[in-house]
Amino acid sequence: MSDLSPRLAAIVDALPLRPGMRVLEIGGGPAAAARAVAQRIGDGHVLMIDRSAKSIALAQQNAAAEIAAGLMSVRQVAAEDFELLAGEAPFDLAFAVRVGAFDGRHPEAGRIAVRRIAAALTSQARLFIDGGDPLRELRLADLGAARPEP
Fold it and tell me: pTM for this structure?
């Protein structure tokens, strides 16, 4: 995609994506990565969350086609406040790029966010953040996050 920086392209390329997945992007900003993920998961779905109303508005504008096609949705919520909606299916994969709750800038928010995100994932789901080469996996079991039963 033309609006994907080389760094973001490397991150999306590193995600273990497959068709039909439900993917949660945490702190997606203008939705560049979410749109790229949506293109790679076929009939799957990407939910991009961000605490910023401005980012959500920009994402809605940039991803209007993906949202209209049902491939993507956006929700204004902080990671530490995130919960599945009634009847909403859990996610197969989650990722966050430059999110303070996950990169150590806000450790208390991070502890809460990990629990909230883990509760929204399937028992086999994986959580990735930037800071590796180009990603690193946060092993939810190692972080003491409660996981839902399958």
Answer: 0.91
Question: What are the helix and strand counts (H, E) for the chain?
Answer: 6, 6
Q: Which two tokens stand for residue 35?
A: 């749109």
Three-class DSSP category at 61: helix
Classify each residue of 63-84 as buried b or exposed e, where b means 16 or more C-beta atoms within 10 Å of its C-beta.
beebbeeebbbbeeebbbebeb
Rounded to a whole number of angstroms, the CA Rg of the chain reads 14
101 Cβ contact list (under 8 Å, min separation 6): 26, 78, 79, 80, 109, 110, 112, 113
Q: Give Cα 65 to chain centroid, integer Å.
A: 19
CA distance 115 to 17: 23
CB 90 within 8 A of CB 120: yes
Q: What is the pLDDT of residues 54-89, one digit of tens each?
A: 999 999 999 999 999 999 999 999 999 999 999 999
